[in-house]
């Protein structure tokens, strides 16, 4: 247990003038020694008070301590258990001896009065450290009330005690810690507060009613006509009122104990299912409790519930995942937290309507003065937390969009001569995004919690970061537009849009692709394809009416009408394919409006939409000019109609329109 190095510490204490204290104590590692201070009793949790034992040596004279002067140079003692309690016990042990000391009477009275004042303050501090309340009653000889009332020094001392009691009672009566809307307080703390308050007030009430020494002090001061006794008795009556209030509040609040235990250990996804039952019990308290059914007390409790819901949500959100880990999981947790906040407000407002409609006690509203929202005192922090979650989601979406932090996200291989340039441009966007994230978010996280709603730097940094994100959105849409300029066919355009759709995570990017780029570029490729088919058909028509063979004319071995039908069918297939490819590019915008071909699940027969069917019917008739052009016009009209939602000023077709159908 004793270590060799301890000998040097003891030697320094005995020989060096600056070493005045030496402490010994035991902990889990064995014997410990220090010349500065022992472990603080209130900083370490012990199974019992007896586990805290410290032996100390205090050097009261300068110079080296040797065997001959050790008794007059050093004071040795120990601390056992709570230091305040230990000191109180030691003073109480020496008081009887002090009374027997033969000092000058004036000096003895003055010292004794100061000692009593110190003991009263020490006793009050000891009670406060334990969360208790009790009046310090001096142990004076008051057997002769008349003689005591004529002792001015004694009456003055008793007056000091009464003044101290009056102050202490006022503190307990008017102390409303439960009404302080502290962010770190839990709903169960409200129940514990009223239990502790009941315990304190009950103990003081018992002393006021039953303590014989206190009754004697009152008689002495009444006989001495003390001016402080009346105020003390007036404050004492309020103890009865507050004790009854505390007992009633504990009685009703205890019905929420189970609900609060579940709330304080639940995951945010499970909290909405707990809310109806908890709010129903709160309604019972509001309607039946004599004291707690008031907006100030109930508002404090509901605010603590909001704070606890926020705390539970914070515990599930890992900001490190958002910045450098599993971004998709963090976004999911943020969505769950936002939904949890929405459900809490929704269930509360539902209960609020029921109380307003059926409860005999009205006024279940908790808005701050001068505000339109009648519940803003409860949900102000919830709304601020939801806003913070949405801002963090925006960071996460930026991670997925520009840094490509998704689990399965990789940069596709873009075809064509500009494929490498596109990939390089996306890498540049990634670099710029990470630079902004490092400067505005990661640096701030080093010093301040990102989930701290009172963080003054957050709003400035997130505003700048959002501005950077908007710039990157515009740059990405420009990259897509430039890539489309080197494309000639609707199929290539559709494939490029599909690749960027795969990468699109932010709503602004998705909207930009399907409301600007698809109408402006992809649709134009589709119209060009239709015009090309029309051009081919016109040349073929002219060629078929003359003996001159055209490069568009079908091979001569085919019969005249069968060849015409076969050629028409090839043009229809080409037009149909172009429409199907184009439609796949705008599917995210128009949903299930229609497809060019669909599979009949019952018969497996491939059927076309009305325009294609009509053209196919005409191929069975002798060649008649114009039906391909009619088909082209009808498909283009339906294409315009399907794109209406994505084109400026466009209008969607009527619900009953039957357009081409795609498989």
Notable traits:
63% helix; 663 residues; two-stranded antiparallel sheet; mainly alpha; four-stranded antiparallel sheet
Textual characterization of the structure:
The protein has 663 residues and is mostly helical. Among the domains are: 1-81, no CATH class; 266-398; 526-663, no CATH class. Helix content is 63%, strand content 5%. The chain has 22 helices and 6 strands. The strands form 2 sheets. It has a 4-stranded antiparallel beta sheet with strand order 2-1-3-4. A two-stranded antiparallel ribbon has the order 5-6. Strand 1 (21-27) and strand 2 (30-34) form a beta hairpin. The chain starts with a helix and ends in a 21-residue tail after the last helix. Residues 546-553, 589-612, 618-625 and 645-663 have low confidence and may be disordered.
* Mean of all residue-level pLDDT scores: 80
Total number of β-strand segments? 6
Order of strands in the sheet with most strands: 2-1-3-4
Which spans have pLDDT < 50 for at least 5 consecutive residues?
A: 546-553, 589-612, 618-625, 645-663
Sheet-strand content, in percent, reads under 5%
Tell me the overall shape: elongated
Order of H and E elements: HEEEHEHHHHHHHHHHHHHHHHHHEEHH
Number of contiguous helices: 22
- Calculate the terminal CA-CA distance, rounded to whole Å: 85 Å
Main structural class: mainly alpha
**Which bin fits the share of residues in helices?**
55-70%
Overall radius of gyration? 43 Å
Summarize the biggest pleated sheet: 4 strands, antiparallel
